[in-house]
TrEMBL record, chain A:
<feature type="binding site">
    <location>
        <position position="265"/>
    </location>
    <ligand>
        <name>spermidine</name>
    </ligand>
</feature>
<feature type="binding site">
    <location>
        <position position="235"/>
    </location>
    <ligand>
        <name>S-methyl-5'-thioadenosine</name>
    </ligand>
</feature>
<feature type="transmembrane region" description="Helical">
    <location>
        <begin position="131"/>
        <end position="154"/>
    </location>
</feature>
<feature type="transmembrane region" description="Helical">
    <location>
        <begin position="98"/>
        <end position="119"/>
    </location>
</feature>
<feature type="transmembrane region" description="Helical">
    <location>
        <begin position="67"/>
        <end position="92"/>
    </location>
</feature>
<keyword id="KW-0745">Spermidine biosynthesis</keyword>
<keyword id="KW-1133">Transmembrane helix</keyword>
<feature type="binding site">
    <location>
        <begin position="343"/>
        <end position="344"/>
    </location>
    <ligand>
        <name>S-methyl-5'-thioadenosine</name>
    </ligand>
</feature>
<keyword id="KW-0812">Transmembrane</keyword>
From TrEMBL, chain B:
<feature type="region of interest" description="Disordered">
    <location>
        <begin position="23"/>
        <end position="42"/>
    </location>
</feature>
<dbReference type="Pfam" id="PF13450">
    <property type="entry name" value="NAD_binding_8"/>
</dbReference>
<dbReference type="InterPro" id="IPR050464">
    <property type="entry name" value="Zeta_carotene_desat/Oxidored"/>
</dbReference>
<protein>
    <submittedName>
        <fullName>Amino oxidase</fullName>
    </submittedName>
</protein>
<dbReference type="InterPro" id="IPR036188">
    <property type="entry name" value="FAD/NAD-bd_sf"/>
</dbReference>
Length: 499, 538
């Protein structure tokens, strides 16, 4: 009997820590700022346990029945805590933190009640020194087990909702087991069986519905923040709003955040275009959001901007949606802009015009299909479309996180006979980001820039071209259609960053 | 047979052919598709050599080339290049190209046969000249490592093998293969590398492509099968045996137990091509396969190329060659009088139209046997779902399968998104005798092949049968010459290479195996012969 109770201490301790970790992880996931979330959740939880321990003195009679009821309450509350937090976050964005701490406090308090009650249940069966040493050591061991399991297996494999339910189930099973163990001592065992059975049914039902539950919760969560979600034949476009920040995701990859996209797009356009005061015809490949074009249209001498974008849904969206038109300054509705919805590679192959400035703003080379747009064959075609003194700018991943990839693109552009001027800028939502200017003539940084820029000015431009040692040039090979080195390199480098 | 009877028979044959080619409502669960192939009715009438109308016209040419496959077209290409105009190339089918023919649909063009060309080595200067002319080779065609147009070099990722439930990179089995077997593979690869570097007595590579510019088959290798040679050298690793057999079936349509070791080794050791911008084992390929080459050659010939023209009787006289040719479109025959004749169709078929076959050829032709093949093109709504790390490649091979796997026809597309994909499935019928294979090709209905192919590919791509919207099957009864030990240990090939009077053969058959480079070489050699150039490579 003592060993059975000691085992339940192990389970109870494990469950307690699990709820604490779920709450802390969930709140840092939803609210951000994980240091604050973890320390406040742990603080509230531990103090609540103290309150629970103190309150245990008011439990006089029917200790076993109380223990079982507390177990059931912890199991239900804790088990559904993650799902409840998800839903609460979705529908009550204001008092979410209040609810979070309330939930953490109540669970903590109930868990705090458990250990003193178990110790009192055991006090006549063990000596005091054995009692304390065994109960407390097993309590801490349970915590150790969960603290290892949680990050390694539970969180990645099961997810928050199911992890919480799993421990809820354990609590309920302990309750049922205890009911069985003490069936002869319990006064109201029928009621307890009934309560335990109902709790078990609820938790199991929760498990069965966990997929639906978490997807409802997460979809609901997304929908509150979502401006738009659209699946086109080419990609999944998701636009989210987070307070005053609008973010665009293509196939779940962040394309821009309204908070700092000006840094990216000013850096993409102005070092090149401001150095070509005579430029009249501009070509933009990729970048159907119109943000780069917004920057291009700051130059009155630019007569035409040709945008080649595969997915017609992108420009259509950024032409019509009021918030997005505000973001790109209604650039796509400008009479100077012509939009062609076709494949950039095929279009370049067949077109015969020359452009003074070409902006190559494709997604990162994450697969062999996009990788083709980073090969020497592609740059050779882009070079053909460049006017005699024209210049091209290429977005080319991060020279810091994907250094080898970045310099592979530089090497590849140079292999088609263009001179390059690599540069970089800090875009907080992406990190340190790289661009490459390319042309047939040497590049001179511009002295004059359009007014109203927030990031680029004549003083900051020279600094963009300095590469500190950790992202300086490294030897690289030419990326070709028949080797697609870049896709492999990029995958390896990005994997290391994410780990 | 009277003319009226013949016409009726002809239209019946054409009718039944048309029916066979029609898309009928497919059985439930199977995609629609056509059962295609070379016009067998015409071919079989050619074999009988009777039933053709008398000649209603006589045409005189200096040179007549019969056969518009790779060899015949190469012959015409070289003649044209040298400024020669008085010749005609006759093609039995309504389109030239032979084994390199292709089809197309809204998704992509796709091959019905030969679909790639390994990088030609310095032993194939004429082929390199042709690639330069067509824009596939840039700069100096005689450079040791020429630059090739990268749109035509096979894009990465190139090859993967499905083995032990997963895809691995490359075709040499590695995944789940024991260390001891891999050591044997390594030893084999090293042995091949040293063979590749070996020179013959005249300082030429022992194994070259075209093979006539390398060493002659040695008795030790010619008369033994590739399978026996492996055993003899102490190779018993099943994965190595599979890989070597795969090579023989892939290039020769012949099981390695029936392939001469000399031919089997040539597959591995005979390529010496390099490129300044690609690995030496990279290949040139196009969605339509080698018909990218044959179409350009055919285009260059203009009116000199006469499709739907079947030579049905050849006579050699003191004045020249007299050839009766049936023009299927016009339903009449014409007589061609030529100073010289090049037979650029499969060598074994000459006997059907030339009653007085020169005796040296007669005995040699008894040694020839041809392998039956099946090629299918599957049009898919979308590429099959991929579960592992290894993405869809150009060439996708299934370990231990009856087929050779599939090639993605639209792999060379530059587009970011295609509207679907076309998979070209290859299967040499090596499990039975060639005659039994041909019988199966003649009798098995479309549903039989569709079921068999979908079952095989569905094993690794469960969603493939559901994604397939069209499945067309091409049957090649006599796809390629089989490089058997008895062929290579006989004197058949040297004899067939010798012209007889005014007639010369030009076909990859003269090499003993069916490679585009070989066909090109024999075609150009015949052109030089026609032009009375001294043939420095004979």
């Amino acid at each position: 009997m003592p060993y059975a109770l000691l085992f339940s201490v192990f389970v109870v301790a494990a469950c307690g820590l699990a709820y604490e970790l779920v709450a802390a992880a969930l709140s840092s996931y939803l609210v951000g700022d994980s240091v604050t979330q973890f320390s406040t959740v742990i603080g509230v939880y531990l103090s609540a346990m103290g309150v629970g321990s103190w309150l245990s003195r008011y439990f006089q009679r029917d200790l076993i029945g109380s223990f079982i009821r507390i177990e059931l309450a912890v199991g239900l509350l804790g088990g559904f805590s993650a799902a409840a937090l998800f839903f609460a976050f979705t529908w009550l964005s204001g008092p979410f933190l209040l609810l979070l701490y309330l939930l953490v406090f109540v669970i903590g308090m109930l868990v705090g009640l458990e250990i003193p009650l178990v110790m009192r249940l055991l006090e006549h069966r063990l000596q005091f020194k054995d009692l304390v040493s065994r109960v407390l050591s097993i309590d801490y061991l349970g915590a150790l087990a969960v603290s290892l399991l949680f990050p390694l297996w539970l969180a990645p494999k099961l997810g928050m909702v199911r992890t919480a339910l799993l421990f809820g189930l354990l609590n309920v099973l302990v309750a049922l087991w205890t009911t069985w163990l003490f069936r002869h001592e319990l006064v109201s065992r029928r009621v307890l069986w009934l309560q335990g059975g109902s709790a078990l049914v609820l938790i199991v039902a929760g498990f069965a519905a966990a997929d639906r539950l978490s997807s409802i919760a997460e979809t609901a969560l997304y929908e509150d923040r979502i401006v738009l979600a659209e699946s086109t034949p080419y990609q999944r476009i998701v636009l989210t709003r987070w307070r005053d920040d609008v973010r665009l995701f293509l196939n779940n990859n962040l394309q821009f955040s309204a908070r700092d996209e000006y840094r990216y797009h000013e850096a993409l356009i102005h070092p090149g275009l401001a150095s070509l005061p005579w430029a009249k015809r501009v070509l933009v490949l990729g970048g159907g959001d119109g943000l780069a074009i917004r920057e291009i249209l700051r130059y009155p001498q630019v007569e035409s901007v040709t945008l080649v974008e595969l997915d017609p849904a992108m420009p259509a969206l950024f032409k019509q949606h009021p918030a997005l038109r505000g973001l790109n300054g209604d650039a796509l509705n400008s009479p100077r802009v012509r939009i062609i919805n076709t494949d950039a590679f095929r279009w370049l192959e067949s077109q015969a015009n020359a452009y003074d400035f070409i902006v190559v703003d494709f997604p990162d080379p994450t697969n062999f299909a996009v990788g083709k747009l980073y090969t020497n064959t592609f740059y050779r075609m882009a070079e053909r479309a460049l006017s005699a003194r024209g210049r091209m700018v290429v977005q080319s991943t991060s020279p810091l996180y994907a250094r080898q990839s970045y310099w592979t693109v530089v090497q590849t552009i140079e292999s088609v006979g263009l001179q390059t001027r690599p540069y970089h800028a800090l875009v907080p939502s992406f990190g340190e980001w790289g661009f490459i200017l390319a042309g047939r003539e040497p590049y001179t940084p511009p002295q004059r820039l359009p007014t109203g820029l927030r990031f680029i000015n004549a003083d900051t431009i020279p600094g963009l071209f300095n590469f500190p040692p950790d992202m300086d040039r490294t030897p690289a090979e030419v990326n070709r259609l028949n080797n697609q080195l870049l896709v492999r390199t990029f995958e390896q480098e990005w994997k290391q960053v994410q780990r | 047979m009277k003319r009226r009877d013949f016409l009726r028979a002809g239209s019946l044959a054409a009718g039944s052919l048309g029916l066979a080619g029609c898309s009928r409502t497919p059985p439930p669960g199977l995609p629609p598709g056509q059962l295609l192939g070379p016009s067998q009715a015409l071919g079989h009438r050619l074999r009988d050599g009777t039933g053709f109308p008398a000649a209603s016209e006589t045409r005189k040419v200096e040179a007549l080339i019969i056969g518009g496959g790779m060899a015949g077209l190469s012959c015409g290409w070289w003649l044209k290049r040298q400024g020669h105009a008085s010749f005609a190339v006759l093609e039995l089918e309504n389109e030239a190209g032979g084994n390199a023919r292709s089809g197309s649909n809204p998704i992509s063009a796709y091959p019905w046969g030969a679909h790639y060309l390994p990088l030609p080595g310095p032993e194939a200067p004429e082929l390199r000249l042709m690639l330069a002319e067509f824009g596939a080779l840039k700069g100096d065609p005689h450079a040791l490592r020429p630059e090739y147009e990268e749109r035509y070099l096979c894009f990465a990722p190139q090859e993967r093998l499905h083995i032990h439930g997963a895809w691995q990179e490359g075709l040499l089995p590695q995944f789940g293969i024991a260390q001891a077997e891999r050591h044997q593979q390594q030893r084999f690869v090293e042995q091949i590398a040293s063979m590749k570097a070996t020179l013959d007595g005249r300082g030429r590579p022992a194994f070259a492509t075209p093979s006539a510019r390398g060493g002659s088959p040695t008795a030790a290798l010619a008369g033994i099968s590739m399978a026996d040679w492996l055993q003899q050298q102490g190779y018993d690793a099943p994965s190595l045996h599979w890989w070597v057999n795969y090579g023989c079936r892939d290039d020769y349509g012949t099981d390695y137990r029936q392939t001469s070791a000399w031919a089997g080794l040539h597959y591995h050791a005979g390529r010496h091509g390099q490129a300044s911008n690609a690995d030496s084992d990279d290949v040139l390929t196009w969605p339509e396969g080698n018909s990218w080459l044959t179409r350009r050659m055919a285009q260059g010939l203009g009116d000199a190329l006469q499709p739907n023209a079947m030579a049905w009787q050849i006579e050699q006289t003191a004045q020249g060659c007299s050839v009766l040719v049936y023009l299927a479109q016009e339903n009449r025959s014409v007589r061609y009088l030529a100073d010289k004749l090049v037979w650029a169709a499969p060598a074994g078929f000459l006997a059907h139209v030339m009653p007085s076959l020169p005796p040296p050829w007669q005995t040699a032709m008894a040694q020839l046997s041809y392998a039956p093949w099946l090629v299918a093109n599957l049009s898919l709504r979308a590429p099959p779902a991929e579960r592992g790390q290894q993405p869809l490649c150009w060439d996708n091979v299934l370990y231990g399968a009856a087929g050779l796997g599939y090639v993605v026809a639209n792999h060379q597309s530059l587009q970011l998104h295609d509207q679907g994909c076309v998979l070209s499935y290859y299967r040499p019928l090596t499990e039975a005798t060639p005659a039994a294979g041909r019988k199966l090709l003649q009798t098995a209905p479309h549903a039989y092949w569709a079921r068999s192919i979908l079952a095989e590919l569905g094993r690794v791509h469960p969603d493939l049968p559901g994604l397939t919207e069209q499945l067309d099957v091409w049957r090649w009864g006599h796809a390629m010459l089989r490089p058997t030990p008895s062929l290579f240990s006989s004197d058949a090939l040297p004899r067939l290479r010798q012209p007889q009077g005014r007639i010369m053969l030009a076909h990859s058959d003269l090499s003993g195996f069916s490679l585009a480079e070989e066909a090109h070489y024999w075609g150009v050699r015949a052109a030089r012969w026609l032009l009375d150039h001294k043939d420095e490579f004979a």
